[in-house]
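Same chain as my last thread, 260 residues:
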Amino acid sequence: MNDAVGAPALRSDKMITVVPDGGLKGWYTDWLMQNTAAGEASWETFHLKQVVPYIDANLRTVPDRAHRAVAGLSMGGSGALHYAQARPDLFGHTASLSGGIDFAMAEVRAAVLATELNLTGAWCAVSSSSSSSGTGECTGFGPYVDSDAIFGSPYPILGADRLWNAYDPAAPANLSKLHDTEVTLYTGDRDLIDARTAIAAATVKARLDRLGIPGRLVDYGNGASLSPSCDGGHNYGCWAAAFADYVPRLEAAFATAATN
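reply #2:
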């Protein structure tokens, strides 16, 4: 995360904010292939079975789902929804900001492959998400790994893409696990990436509606309705503003939640 741009919007005197590392191409899952140039990659196990218990053991938390949220941007947006679906006992709130949350979309699968193969060209051209300065200067996605390293084959042939489908945050079977979770989706609709995240967010919102699960979709389009810093693209100018909108809502939800 770009702390200089994003951190101020996350600061709060009313809750504890934890921003763990997610890896350059972790995709918030335990990889199929563990023997790659990236080393062992068990991100889901790390975050859910080590980070969360560590925080509860060492900080003054209210350790129940009503007082715990998981949120993320871009790659982390899909991870946030996935973690909320995988562990509804842990998280009562989840938010995705410009997330690649529909794994049935060819563009999302291509984005995963691009991070595995470190093909950053198109991504860097429109995004500051990998930049340390927030200016769009990409730093890459780490060492090349096999294109099947994370989820196996992405091709829907004879069930070869079963891991993609099992993870897919937009799959109705996974969304149904959020029946008691507060879901928020933010997206713009400009540039190469957010034009696609807007489609994914609309798909997820429509499926939540059909499942009878309340969800809040904030499609801020070109950014004018969100903040002067936001151009509707895949960058911290929009994400910081989205967090600035989301954090007070989360504080209020925590304040009114009953303590188990």
